[in-house]
Amino acid sequence: MKKLLTLVLLSFFTINSFLAQTTSDPLGIANTFNGFILGDLNHPGGDSEGALAVGGTAVFPTAFTIADRLPSGGNSLGYGFVANGDVTWNGGTIQHGDVHIAGTITGDVNSSILDGTLYNPSTPIDFSAQETYLKSLSDHWKNLTPNGTIDLQAWGGLTLTGTDSDLNVFSLTEAQFKGTGQVVVVVPAGSTVIINVAGLSDASSDHPFWGNMSFNGSVQGSAWTNAIWNFYEMTTF
Q1: How far is CA 196 from the centre of its chain?
Q2: Are both 112 and 160 inside the same structural domain?
Q3: Is residue 60 included in any domain, yes or no?
Q4: Are residues 106 and 165 in the same domain?
């Protein structure tokens, strides 16, 4: 998994409060993790190059690597992996940061931690409060008025073009999202991008991205720092 924060919002404060945060970090604690999952996670394999937080149970059927691209000590909070429920661990490594698991551990997590400490039981994150905040933020974003243009070619090429130097908002239907094979975003440098996607269908099984995702000419994950994909109706990702 490349360095791309995936915030899964399954279903923020006042608008003034939100606008005050957009100049700093509206995602708060979630932005210190590669994956911040509000519910359960069952991941078939691979890795999370940054820290990972799971608000429910976490199941890793095969070997999994966490926080291999972080410096010694983990993320800015000192975490490598946090789970608010039970964890089933079948091998791999948690390379940097402390591990906090609230529930029962199946498998030898402790021997997989390379430079941190296992805390069990431990719940350093109030996932309930985070869920309330993040879902409210998602609701606010979905109601923003779109100001960008959408061009979806028959072959699946999707180009999102915005001209606002501050905030560019795009709203995709479920059909438009499923018809996408490549994404190109063109907006003023430094502007924020919010891409609202309607629909309940699981994005990964119904339509994975097989093509490039380009942001102002770059296919690097770091280019997407100011962009949010808001799947505000989806319940499974």
Answers
A1: 14
A2: no
A3: yes
A4: no
